[in-house]
């Protein structure tokens, strides 16, 4: 696929976790979704660095909560008898949203720490040379 004069190839990302884009020029850090075809910074227009953040301890709980929520929603829509139907569904959706926010926040914090460490390593290398 040609996008802005360049050929873009699609390849599968290895490993679970979130992907982030970081701009070394202005320090912009953002999560990378599947729909981002370009790695250009929105602020300064420079090329951004793509990196993966490992899966946090919250992620499996989030996925389990999401699966349970979908199952309960399907049972609710098929009119099966569930104790406290609407309340259970609302609580599961709220729990899933809280876990999603916690997972994203933790991943973003890890990404910031990774970038801070890389900056410190780069400064040490510059001072040594």
Describe this structure in words.
The protein has about 130 residues and is α+β, with helices and mostly antiparallel strands. The protein folds into two domains: about 1-55, no CATH class; about 55-129. The protein is built from two helices and five strands; from the N terminus they run βββββαα. The strands form two sheets. A three-stranded antiparallel β-sheet has the order 4-3-5, covered by helices on one side. Strand 1 and strand 2 (about 5) form a beta hairpin.
Offer a concise description of the structure.
This protein has 129 residues and is of the alpha+beta class. It has helices spanning 59-77, 85-128, and strands at residues 2-3, 6-7, 18-22, 29-31, 49-53. It folds into two domains: 1-54, no CATH class; 56-129.
Structural class: alpha+beta
- Alpha carbon gap, first and last residue: 41 Å
Spans of 5+ residues with little confidence (pLDDT < 50)? Answer: 5-14
Biggest sheet layout: 3 strands, antiparallel
Put simply, the count of helices is 2
Q: What is the averaged pLDDT score?
A: 81
Shape: elongated
Beta fraction of the residues?
5-15%
Which series of helices and strands comes N to C? EEEEEHH
Keywords:
alpha+beta; three-stranded antiparallel sheet; 2 domains; 13% strand; two-stranded antiparallel sheet; elongated; 129 residues
